[in-house]
Amino acid sequence: xxxxxxxxxxxxxxxxxxxxxxxxxxxxxxxxxxxxxxxxxxxxxxxxxxxxxxxxxxxxxxxxxxxxxxxxxxxxxxxxxxxxxxxxxxxxx
Length: 93
Description:
Layout: E1 3-13, H1 19-30, E2 33-38, E3 44-51, H2 52-64, E4 70-79, E5 88-90
Parallel strand pairs: 2-5
Antiparallel strand pairs: 1-3, 1-4, 2-3
Helix pairs in contact: 1-2
């Protein structure tokens, strides 16, 4: 089972619209580990790692977001999985 890691920065109308909760639920459904958090610049940051097709599925969902959001830009940075995450959480600074 090939493992992937990815850091995703999502810009647009993505804070205050349930985006983090939506991504959290989808990540749990797909069995992906990592986190989602709001950034101070108004973007949302997602770090996800897990089985390749599960990470790809989460990325596809991130690109669309929930109906209440408006995703305008998605930056994707593929990473070597760290294995540091045992679940997917909503992170707060």
